[in-house]
Amino acid sequence: MSILSVFKKKKTVSDNRAPSYSSCNGRENSGLADTRAAIDELSKVVKDIPEAVEIYLALGNLYRSQGEIERAAQIRNSLIVRPGLAPETKARALYELGRDFNRGGFLDRAVNALEKAHEIVGDSPEILTELAEISASSREFENAVFYYSKLGQPVQEAHYMSRLAEDDFNAGEEARANRTLKKALKISPYSVESWLLVLTRLKKEGSLDKFTKKFHTALSQVPVNLRFVIIEGLLAESLVFGDTPINKGEPDIERNQPFYEVMIDEIDKSDPDVIMYYYGARLLQLCSKQDDASVWLEKTLMLNQNFWLARLELFNLAQGQQQLTASFKNQLDFFVNIARKVQRFTCSSCGLKRDRIFFICPRCRSWHSITFRKELNQ
Ligand SMILES: [Zn+2]
What we know:
Layout: H1 5-8, H2 12-15, H3 28-46, H4 53-65, H5 69-80, H6 87-104, H7 107-121, H8 125-137, H9 141-151, H10 154-170, H11 174-187, H12 192-205, H13 208-221, H14 227-236, H15 253-269, H16 274-286, H17 290-303, H18 308-319, H19 326-340, E1 345-347, E2 353-354, E3 370-372
Antiparallel strand pairs: 1-2, 1-3
Helix pairs in contact: 3-4, 4-5, 4-6, 5-6, 6-7, 6-8, 7-8, 8-9, 9-10, 10-11, 11-12, 12-13, 12-14, 13-15, 15-16, 16-17, 17-18, 18-19
């Protein structure tokens, strides 16, 4: 049951701006003071009117949006203790109180209020989502897994199982980590982060045969538009969920080469795809096969002639074959280096650009919204 349903009808209340009596247009501080005074006045008026409970709650949300957590919480608490209050309204007040505390960074109190709301109305998606997100942000991945499983959201559930597994790997709990990963892939066979973690571990262990089989399965399972995430993640040589910058330190080419060859072979066998051919070319370059790399880069341009990264790499490769003056070469290197710094990934929901892979957009919190910028104006 949705506890928001009773509330949504009157949602416009919280969207309305309080009237401003200030004659000084654009003076933010005085506008803010007016808004707060208006909320105060309205709160006093509706405080004891039973029919105005929803408006009263909406005013609490207004306080919260202004960062006035204490006042928002006061409103919820004065409702919660009101005699004869309908259980759904009490649950609603507790839910909003939980959100207030979450916004204020009091996570324990937030969980406490949300759990009380949960006791009253049971598995409401709003409450479970709030609890799942708090668990995730406080790194309590086991709880996050529990709530996302209740919500029936396998992508999220598998994500936090993989995070649990990575923590276990780092703590030396290999067997448990492997069991968790296996479960994650059972819950969501197309979980790109789970596959990436499996493959990263096999590569680290040097298990080439297992890697070959799993890489093939991974490419066939994950959504086509997310396959590049696996290769990018494997090239990054960092923690799957860590924030360490990519390509830090010298990669061990001799050790990596057999794995790169397996990946090239698999890409070669799969359906033509601009991004996959581009990664194939990058892998060939890492294996010092420059001529083959050029052929693959040309192949990407046959599929999409605006694919800027291929043009950049081909241009760079061609540079070596030209007789250039030192000054000319200097200018060219400058532009090539700048172009290489262009962020290659973007969120399809909000347009955020990044040079590191992400599974949840850091800005709009969309899941698996990462795309590769095939064209520069993307
Ligand atoms: Zn986004």
